[in-house]
């Protein structure tokens, strides 16, 4: 896995937990560090705790932890050895004839061709590691206070020795030369490490957290099932959680975007519906006006008032063609007709009724023939003709159908 991605997945918080074995119990000391850019600050510390649950309450399950095994039961020896000496050679120099499978070994180079070697029984290490890994996210295990070697360059002042709780560590040329453990130590020291004040009881836990954050130092090769691939497993869990958070964030963003567009479309829909309602009212009014126009048109057609014929022109043509001896008394253009509806009236726009007098019927007949020859007249008929005495004038009524 890429170093930058691994650092991102590890997060900015890192914890170091020291499990100090005593004859009657195990005491726990912890330090929680936070990385901010190139600076590291202490967030929480605790020492002399009797249970891991107290640490769990302080740091939670999601923080990566480096476990450091110290206290009674761990043997520390400065032994001569080549820099690349294998583990079984270092173990034989501390405990001759010891079986490698029964012990775990931790070592750091010391001054000259020598190593500070720490040895613990495998059964003890397995028990403590598995108990801790049940509650905390242990990703690495270190053996002995030799982990302090990783932070020695950060300690203010020139150090010949340090009291880390019940451990007394001596240095030679900035290398660990001696480690002793005593159950009854009344030394309570504080050290300035990287600008932070750290109590002697939590220096080892601080060093464990720092080494884990910097991914430095030799881990205890325990072969413990609980810790096998613990770091990779933690990274995979972090990757899964990060992926899940990103997925949820994307889903949330998608939902928000959908809601935003939905709101936009919903508002636009309401605006269009409002416009449609307004236009619908206009259309309804237009339809009503059209219906009224149509009804008025039908009425005018029925009444003959929309006829394009010029009644004045027709009257002028009749007067122009009328011979001497005929006198008109009445012209009725578009005479009234009967309609089925009782409350309606109608007019025949293509008819003309003429009433008048004539001295001789022959003159009237000649005029009728003359009118029938007109292109704008379809037919002419006599509705009535009356004459009381022979020398008297007759009264007539004509019905003219217009083209």
Give the overall average pLDDT: 84
Please give the largest β-sheet.
5 strands, mixed
Distance between the termini: 104 Å
In which range does the helix fraction lie? Answer: 25-40%
Strand content: 25-35%
Specify Rg, calculated over alpha carbons: 60 Å
Global morphology: rod-shaped
Strand segment count: 19
What is the H/E string?
HEEEHEEHEEHEEEEEEHHHEEEEHEE
Q: How do the strands of the widest beta sheet line up side by side? A: 3-2-1-4-8
Total of helices:
8
Structural class: alpha+beta
Number of domains: 3
Weakly predicted, low-confidence segments: none
What's the oligomerization state? single chain
Write the layout of secondary structure elements.
Blueprint (H helix, E strand, L loop, with lengths): L2 H8 L2 E9 L4 E11 L2 E11 L2 H8 L4 E8 L3 E6 L6 H8 L8 E7 L4 E8 H14 L1 E7 L17 E4 L2 E5 L4 E6 L8 E4 L2 E4 L3 H12 L15 H74 L7 H11 L4 E8 L2 E2 L8 E2 L3 E8 L2 H12 L4 E10 L7 E9 L1
Structure description:
With 403 residues, the protein is an alpha+beta fold. It has 3 domains: 3-228, no CATH class; 242-298; 311-402, Gyrase A, domain 2, CATH 3.30.1360. It is 36% helix and 32% strand. It has 8 helices and 19 strands. The strands form 6 sheets. Strands 3-2-1-4-8 form a 5-stranded mixed beta sheet, sandwiched between helices. Strands 14-17-19-18 form a 4-stranded antiparallel beta sheet, covered by helices on one side.
């Amino acid at each position: 896995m890429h170093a930058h991605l691994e650092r991102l997945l590890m997060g900015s918080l890192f914890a170091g937990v020291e499990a100090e074995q005593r004859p009657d119990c195990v005491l726990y000391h912890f330090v929680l560090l936070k990385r901010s850019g190139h600076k590291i600050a202490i967030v929480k510390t605790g020492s002399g705790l009797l249970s891991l649950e107290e640490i769990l309450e302080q740091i939670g399950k999601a923080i990566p932890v480096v476990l450091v095994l110290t206290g009674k039961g761990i043997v520390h020896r400065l032994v001569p050895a080549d820099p690349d000496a294998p583990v079984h050679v270092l173990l034989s120099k501390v405990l001759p004839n010891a079986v490698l499978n029964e012990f775990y070994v931790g070592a750091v180079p010391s001054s000259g061709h020598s190593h500070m070697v720490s040895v613990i029984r495998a059964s003890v290490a397995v028990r403590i590691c598995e108990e801790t890994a049940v509650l905390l996210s242990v990703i690495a295990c270190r053996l002995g206070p030799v982990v302090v070697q990783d932070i020695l360059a950060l300690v203010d002042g020139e150090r010949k020795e340090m009291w880390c709780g019940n451990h007394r560590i001596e240095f030679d040329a900035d290398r660990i030369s001696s480690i002793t453990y005593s159950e009854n130590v009344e030394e309570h020291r504080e050290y300035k490490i990287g600008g932070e004040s750290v109590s002697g009881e939590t220096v080892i836990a601080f060093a464990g957290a720092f080494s884990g954050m910097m991914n430095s130092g030799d881990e205890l090769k325990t072969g413990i099932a609980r810790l096998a691939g613990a770091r990779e497993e933690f990274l995979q869990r972090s990757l899964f959680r990060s992926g899940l958070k990103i997925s949820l964030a994307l889903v949330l963003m998608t939902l928000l975007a959908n809601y935003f567009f939905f709101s936009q479309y919903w508002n636009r829909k309401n605006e269009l519906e409002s416009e449609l309602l307004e236009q619908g009212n206009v259309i309804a009014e237009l339809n009503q006006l059209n219906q009224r126009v149509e009804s008025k048109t039908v009425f005018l057609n029925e009444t003959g008032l929309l006829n394009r014929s010029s009644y004045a022109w027709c009257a002028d043509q009749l007067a122009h063609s009328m011979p001497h001896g005929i006198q008109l008394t009445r012209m009725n253009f578009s005479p009234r007709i009967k309609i089925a509806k009782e409350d309606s009236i109608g007019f025949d726009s293509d008819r003309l009724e003429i009433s008048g007098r004539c001295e001789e019927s022959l003159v009237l007949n000649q005029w009728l023939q003359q009118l029938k020859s007109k292109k704008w007249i379809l037919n002419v008929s006599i509705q009535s003709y009356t004459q009381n005495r022979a020398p008297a004038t007759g009264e007539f009524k004509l019905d003219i159908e217009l083209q």
